[in-house]
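Fold this: Pentatricopeptide repeat-containing protein
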Amino acid sequence: MSVFGACSQLSYLRLGEETRCYALKASLMDVVFIGCSIIDTYAKYGCIEQSRWIFDKLTNTDVASWNAMIVGYGINGYGKEAIELFEKMHDQGQWPDGFTFVGILMACSHAWAC
């Protein structure tokens, strides 16, 4: 998790991708916090499609992984997608927390149209 955080702070996309590959090979993607870190890293690079791909591949999702993807959409200006994901989260029985609502508010404030 620390490596992904450092990669996103320092804008080392290549190192982030290499670390993601290692996580996949080592079967670490099922560790929720690692999956969240990868989602967050790609979102901070502006690679929202890769973030969503990772999110969709997670076998164990919790409120943290939903929040990471919602915030990822938010910081990249995808308010509509963030709200749709929030609705899907609710439909699947996952309860939002305070961070979820902050993510939705951020998404709407950064969106082209919400």
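The chain has one domain: 2-110. The two ends are 32 Å apart (CA to CA).
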